[in-house]
Amino acid sequence: VDFNDPLYLHPSDTLGVNIVNEQLVGTENYGVWSRAMMIGLTAKNKLGFVDGSCRKPMEGSPMLHQWERCNAIVLSWIMNIVSKEIFAGFIYSTDASSIWKDLKERFNKVNGSRIYDLHREIVHDQQQKLLQFLMGLNDSYTNVRSQILLMSSLPTPGQAYSLISQEESHRGILSVVGNHSVA
Question: What sequence ranges are listed for the domain Retrotransposon Copia-like N-terminal (predicted)?
Fold first, then answer.
């Protein structure tokens, strides 16, 4: 078998090897774990065993035994890097691709409450930055600061900066016009 073929087994491709350091413990680290595994499997030229692109040969094929060996190696890599609780759920599985799909279905979840909390934290941080910015302005900006704080929807700090800049430009124009009318 050519060394570029996914069915090629390098002497370092053994059962006890962990191809990544991150152990899968659940939804909290599935994204990092699966990405690390995909990189490791790609480096070992075995990604096809989990994404389904390296299909099992038909019965009687001379490559069937080699495919089964490679599949068993990939299975062992996956089993070696998951928690005992997860491991118990697929100890009798025989196909790396089906385990990969099962793990993705079970643990690749979008945690709605976590997303809500993160969004709330981002909004809170933006409001804090806005208030810091507005309170740092000198007293000549009291009116525009009050107008911004009375808005039904608070602007981002960048939008508030833009409003203050517009006010400053407006004052500069009025100052120039005022100086010309005096002259």
Answer: 10-57
